[in-house]
Design a protein that fits this description.
four-stranded parallel sheet; 10 helices; about 15% strand; alpha/beta; two-stranded antiparallel sheet; about 250 residues; 6 strands
Amino acid sequence: MGAKSIGLQLSSQLREMLETATVFLYPAKCRVCDGFLGVASMPYICVNCWQDVQYIEPPWCDICGTLDVNGLCDECAISPPRYGKLRSIAFYHTTLQQAIHLFKFEKKRVFAQPLVQLINAHIPSDYDIAEYDFILPIPIHKKRLRERGFNQAALLADGIAKAENIPVLVNTLVRKRHTVAQSSLDRDARQQNIVGAFEVQTPDVIRGKRLLVIDDVFTTGATIREAVSELWTADPAEIDVLTLARTVDP
């Protein structure tokens, strides 16, 4: 690692430490309920609100994870997606929605640890993380990486991987084209926006391997479908997907 990379890493760690210290030292209100943050609270969100995260439980579609389905949903029965299965940890709702917004759009990197802990504590029962050869986060374009300072999916992937000592690949699947933020588009526009956005740069690394793709939020599935389709050009053995949140009302 070069001196510049080390300097950037230390600078990022220092900002995170200062941000955490500021939150705890000065009175603040919870960004969800507007109540007072106690000294034992997580940053920006109170303990009570963290306990209100609504986790996703079966039944769900065996493949895409659509809720309240036993077996396969109608869409997967007719035209299944190219991944083996997709699961999400909790609903993109209230507390988790605010936490992800702070993490992703307000650049509060301090949320990486509690969100990783949330994922690791609620891995779906039909997933065995230790069986995968590699974990791949959905990449962001280098322009957005410069703006945000980090890839939120990569930080989540790192936390999941460390628990099982599995390698994370951040330079195998890359975002070769800068796109408009998917969150600003409707369903049809999302699919068109993401077409051709990804590229596999080191196909030999993942050929014949079992892959777990990680992302923060599953909405329409357009990004996941495009990324998985590109990954299959390298002929891996299997591709599954895990996301932190899913935009379905509980």
